[in-house]
Amino acid sequence: MPALVEIENVHFAYSDDGPEIISGLNLTIERGEYIALIGQNGSGKTTLSKLIGGLNTPTSGEIRIDDVSVATLSVPERTARVGYCYQNPDHQIFLNTVEEEVAFGPKNMGLSPGEIEERVVQALEAVGLLQYRKEEPYFSGKGERQKIAVASVLAMQPSLIVLDEPTTGLDWRDSQNMMRLIDDIRQTGHTIMIITHNMRLVAEYAERAVVMCHGEIKLDGTPAEVFQHEDTLKESFVSPPQITQLWRAVEAQGAPWLNARQAVPRVKELMQLKKNK
Amino acid sequence: MTSPLVSVNDLTWSYVGSDRPALSGVNFELMPGEVLGVTGPSGAGKTTLCMTINSLIPNNFRGEFGGRVLVQENDTALLSVCDLVQQVGLVFQDPESQFMGMTVEEELVFTLENLGLGDGEITHRITHAIEMVHMEDFMQRSPFSLSGGQKQKVAIAACLALEPSVLVLDEPTSELDPIGASEVFAVLRELKTSRQIGIILVTHATEDLAAFCDRVLLLSEGRQVCLTSTQEFFSDVSLLERYGVQIPQIVEVFGALGEEYSGPIPITLERAVGLIRGEA
Lengths: 277, 280
What we know:
The structure holds 2 protein chains of 2 kinds.
Chain A: E1 5-13, E2 20-29, E3 34-38, H1 45-52, E4 60-65, E5 68-69, H2 75-81, E6 82-85, H3 98-108, H4 113-126, H5 142-154, E7 160-164, H6 172-187, E8 191-195, H7 199-205, E9 208-213, E10 216-221, H8 223-226, H9 230-235, H10 242-250, H11 260-276
Helix pairs in contact in A: 3-4, 3-5, 4-5
Chain B: E1 6-15, E2 23-30, E3 35-39, H1 46-53, H2 56-59, E4 63-71, E5 74-75, H3 81-84, E6 88-91, H4 104-114, H5 119-132, H6 148-160, E7 166-170, H7 178-195, E8 198-202, H8 206-212, E9 215-220, E10 223-229, H9 230-235, H10 237-242, H11 249-255, H12 269-277
Parallel strand pairs in B: 3-8, 3-9, 6-7, 7-8
Antiparallel strand pairs in B: 1-2, 1-4, 4-5, 9-10
Helix pairs in contact in B: 4-5, 4-6, 5-6, 6-7
C-alpha cells in the first residue's frame, strides 16, 4: 500500500525571480502518523503544508496523496484528502452560524442534505460544540473559534489534517484542550500534521518531529531522537523544551527527557548524590 | 525616593454592553527599570489593561471607567494617546497591525514627523532606536517582508524612537520561533538595564516570565488575583494550577522531589542546573 503522502524533490518559489522557499524536499507520511513540523519563522513550514494541500503548486517535483498527484486533483478531491486549519481561525470563518460554517465544506463536496447534517453533527460533537450550532461563530473566545475551524475541516473527513499553529494565542488550559482534541481526532484514524513553535507540545504529543530550515529538512525522527541533535537544532534556530535543555546540562546521556515526569527520578538521584558528597 | 513610572489605583473598566467588568479593582505600581509580568487565562483583561496605560481606554473605547491610571504622575484619563505617545510605547501581539510604512525607515520616521521634530533630531533618534534592536541593515526593507522576530523588533524600535519611559508589550513573542523570541528578550533586557525603562509584559509563556520579570500580576476575569515577586508566584504551584497557568517544567520537577529538596524552588534553567550540580 502506498504511503498517504509522498513528496519527491519538490521545489517552490512564490514568483519566477523570487527566492526558493522549498528546495528539493523529499518526505513520506504514512497513514495514522502524528507529525510536528518545526523550524524558525520563514523556514518553509506553512508553504510546505499548503503545497501538500494543493493551495500552492510546486515549481518542480511532485506531491502524491494516495498515489495520485495533487496537481491532477480537483478542489473537492483535494479537500476530501487534506484538511487545512489556518493559524488564525478568523481567516477561515466567514459564515453567520457555527453550523453553516461547518456545513460549507460538505456542501461544496456535493453531498446530500442528510449526509451534510450527519457530518455537521459528528464534527461538532467531536470538538464539543454541538450545543452552539445555532450561535454565530464569534460567540466566544479564540479557543472556541479554533475548534470551529477544526470542526469545519473534520466535516470533510480528510485523511490528513494539517493544523498550522493550533495553540497560538490560546492560554495554557485551552492549549491543552486543543492538543487533547487533536489526539482524540487522531485516534479516529486521521493522520495529523501540526506546525508549531511550542516544543513542549511537540515533546508531549507528537510521534515524529520534522525540522525545517531554509526550505530543507534538517532532522526527521521521534522527538527524543530529534532533540538530541543540539548543533543541528541550533543551526535550524530551534531550541528544545526546557526539560530537554536541563537533561543536556546535567545528564547528556541516554534518552533525553521530554517531560517533567521522566526527569524527576534521575534528578532525585543526582540531588542525593550531591548530598552524599 | 524614586517615583513610580506608572500607578494604577483601583482601576475598573466595563465595555459598553458587557455584563461584567473587563477590569475590576486593579492596583499596582511600576518602577523605573522594573519588569512587571502580567498573565492569566484568556478573557482575564490583560489586553484591556495594556490599553489603559496609554489612555486608549477610556478615551478611544466606549465604556465605564473607574479609578485612576497615572503615568509619571499624569492622569491618563485626562490625556490623549497622542499626549502620551512619548511616555508610553505599546507593542501589540501582531506587529503588522501597527505597520504603515513602505520601509523600516519610514515606519520609524512616521510618528516622529507627526510630532513635528526636525530632520536632525529624527535621524538621531531612528539611528539610535534601530541600533538598540540590532536591525541597522534592514532600514530600506519593507517591514512586511521581515521574519516574525524582525517585525517585532521593528515595532519595538518604532516605540523606542519616541523615547518612552514605559514600554507595554502585549504577547510580543507568541507568534515567534524560540530564537526570534530570545532576540526580542535580549533587546528588552538591554533596555531594562541600560535605559531604566519600565516594562509591562503580557504573556502566557511562563518560562519567559520566570526568567525575565521582577514581579507578576495575575488577572482572572478582570480581577487582580495576586501581585507578587516572580519567585513567590512560581513557588505557589496550587495557585498556578487553579488559574490554568502553565507551570515551568523546572518548577514541576523540583516541586515533585519531595524530601530530596526543601529549598526555594528554582524558576530558571540556570538556577536548576546550579542546584543539581551543587554549585549553588
